Structure formats: structure tokens, C-alpha cells
Amino acid sequence: MLINNTTYPIAAQTLEDGDIALGLDKFQTKKTPVSDDELFAISYDKMGSVIERHGEAITIGKLKKAAHALAPYSNTEKTPVAPTSGETDGGRKKCTRKDIIALKRKLDALQIPASGRRLVLCSDHVNDLLEDDQKFRDQYYNYTSGKIANMYGFEVYEFENCPYFNKNGVKLAVNATPTETDFQASFCFYTKRVFRAQGSTKMYYRDAVTNPDYQQNEVNFRHYYIVLPKKMEAIGAIYSYDGSTSQTSDASAASDKNWAQVRREAAKGTQGGGGEEEEEETA
After folding, report:
1. Which terminal residue of the chain, N or C, has fewer Cβ atoms less than 10 Å from its own Cβ?
2. What is the DSSP letter of 191?
3. Which pLDDT does position 255 carry in this prediction?
4. Within 10 A of 161 (CB to CB), how many other CB atoms are there?
5. How many CA atoms lie within 13 A of 134 on its CB side?
6. 8 Å CB contact between 136 and 130
7. Burial environment of residue 33 by CB neighbours within 10 A (0 to 12, 13 to 18, 19 or more)
8. Would you tell me how many other CB atoms lie within 10 Å of the CB of residue 23?
9. Cα–Cα distance, 269 to 7 (Å, whole number)
10. How far apart are CA 60 and CA 170, in angstroms?
11. Residue 228 Cα to chain centre, angstroms
12. Each residue of 1-45: pLDDT tens digit?
């Protein structure tokens, strides 16, 4: 950008750009058997109900992983993680409006544009604010939009499967089992510096007619999807501070592997690098 320019011709600056192939994550459900005996004895659409629940399971799983990907691993210069500062409750300090303002201040310092900031509150932090903040209670539900009212420039949402952070302020792995000192964290991101890609969904189905051994139908699904930050910046979090443990910053995180990487490593380990490989989807 030039301001009060007097030099002509105006210089050219090349914008480096291009496509980057990125493997998606693969989400699968376990197969569900539904026998002809069951279908004969019931009065509702059992197969329809099973298919709907498989879809719900995939949706929950992919959104949980998306939330995990959009939360920083630990506090860094470009990915701020703020501790809660309220009253102590059950081994952690409650979340307050001051904590949200503290996160906002850190994003302001990074010059993240105000328009496009989203804050996703975990259940613990929503309940903290509902208990102790009359103004938040009044704004909790917007009957027009159906979501929490905006706060301090953030579009605010609530999600029940937010990622867990330990007492040092470091994010747990997506499938890690939390301990009694690990709590869900709220997270924020800037919409223009994250992306979402969705691939195909395929239903696998075996009819009871082709299954004479068990005379049962079998069904499951496979779906490709991924959400990631474009760079490790413009994302942040608020974790439940225990009041005594020092926060860890600049912690190193293992690279999160997508399906393409996992598949190649598995093929190399079991086949010595050769053999036929299962299909993958990229964006």
C-alpha cells in the first residue's frame, strides 16, 4: 500500500499464490446390524432411525475435531491463551467478562480485524457467566437469531465438545481421556484465516437377502472433512486456571496427521512401501 505517493510509474509487487493439495480426514462409523426378525416385530422405520443416528455420530465427531483444530496448542505470541480469573469453583477459576476482554486485548495487539472474530464458549464458561453475570443472562439467548448475543466484537457461540486443556494451559490430544485436573476451554478464531473442506459421503449397506448366515441388514458410513487454520495465528483460547500452576507457553506440538498421511504410513509399515492403497480425498 502506498500513501501520498509521488513516484510513477507505480512499482509492481508479485503476489505469491497457488493451489495446495491437502488430504482430508476420514470419518467412519461402525456397522450396525438390523435383523429381519427386528424389522418384522417393530412398528416404526428402524432402518431410517439407524441411518439418521449414523449421520448424527459423524456430525458430532467431525465438529469435535474441527473445534480441536481451531484452538491453539499453547500460549504463543501469535496464538494467545488466557487463563480464567474468577472465583475458585471445583478446582478451577470461573470465567468472567474480564477474561473475554483480556483475550480481546491480545487479539487487538496482534491487529486482528474486529469483523470476523468468533468466540466459541465451552459449557463450563457459559455456566460461569450465567451464574455470576446478570447482563450475560439477559443476552444469553437471542430469540431472533437463536444464538448468544455478540460480546466485545466477538460473534459468540456455545459448543458442548470444546477441546480440553490441562492445568498448564496446554491442549490435550483430540481423543485423550481428560483427568480431574483437565477442563474444557473456550476458543476463538478469525474467519478469514481458517478454512473448511468437505468431501464425499458414502453409505455402505448389505441387504439381509445377501446375508444368509445371519439374515440381517448391515449399514455404516464414510465421510471426508477437515477444518484447519491457514496458519498458526489469529486463533486463541481461554482455559480454566487452577489458581496455582504456572502457565506453559510456546509448547511444541506433534503434527496432526490427516488421512492421507496415516494411510501412507500404514501402507509402508505393513507392505514395505508397496501394494495397493485405499482411495483418499484431497481439497
Report:
1. N
2. G
3. 77
4. 16
5. 0
6. yes
7. middle
8. 21
9. 61
10. 23
11. 8
12. 899 999 999 999 998 887 777 889 999 999 999 999 989 888 899
